[in-house]
Amino acid sequence: MAVRREVLGAEHVDRANAGKDEFTTDFQDLITQYAWGTIWTRPGLPRTMRSAITLTALIAHGHLEEFAMHVRAALRNGLDRDEIKEIVLQSAIYCGVPSANSAFKVAQGVFREIDAAA
Fold first, then answer.
1. Which residues form the Carboxymuconolactone decarboxylase-like domain (predicted)?
2. pLDDT for position 39
3. What is the pLDDT of residues 22-76, one digit of tens each?
4. Which end of the chain is more exposed for a tag (fewer CB within 10 A), N or C?
5. Long-range contacts: 73-76, Cβ < 8 Å, 24+?
6. Predicted pLDDT at 79
7. Contact 68, 104 (CB under 8 A)
8. Do 91 and 103 meet the contact criterion of CB atoms below 8 Å apart?
């Protein structure tokens, strides 16, 4: 849970936990245990690399809501906006231009929200 909070932010994790019910509790527990407790804590890759891989996978599969969340996480993990731009550009070649186009729009919106809150 500590890594999940560090990467996604306490506000997001608190919101996810507040939304748990009898139907979703097992899924939230699975995510916390395996994604955040097993994969994100492995020593083999730095968090910046894990973020880059995650962003690319989300672009490839069209999971744009999750992509927005992980753009914020990537910034928290130490990637900057230029690096995120390069990840999306690289993804345009391997995941498709329409997918990258959508990802650019989502990232741009995330950056605007962050700038407006600052």
1. 26-108
2. 95
3. 999 999 999 999 999 999 999 999 999 999 999 999 999 999 999 999 999 999 9
4. C
5. 73/7, 73/8, 73/9, 74/48, 75/114, 76/6, 76/7, 76/8, 76/9
6. 98
7. no
8. yes
Helical (H) or strand (E) element with 54: helix 47-61
Which pTM was predicted?
0.91
Class (C level, CATH) for 46-118: mainly alpha
What per-residue confidence (pLDDT) applies to 90? 98
- Give the closest residue to 35 by CA, choosing from 63, 20, 9, 54: 54
Which residue ranges make up each domain of the chain?
1-44, 46-118
